[in-house]
Amino acid sequence: MKMIRNLAIAGCSVLLLTQCATQDEVRELNYQIRAVNQKVEEVRTKAVGTIQKRQASSVSKIDQVEEETLRLKSRLEESEHLAGQFREKTGQDLAALHKAVEQLRAENEEKIRALEQKVDQLSAAFTKVQQERIRAAEERAREAARRAEAARKRVVVAATGSPVKVRPERRKVRVGSGKVVSAAAGTTATGSSGPAPSPSVEKSQGSVQVVTTPDTTAGPFSRAMALYKAKKYKDAYRMFEQVLAGNPKGAKAAETLFYMGECLYNQGEYDLAILDYQKVISNHARDPHTPAALLKQGMSFEKLTDHETAKIIYKKLIKDYAGSPEAATARKRLENL
Question: Is 0.85 surpassed by the pTM of this model?
Answer without folding.
Answer: no
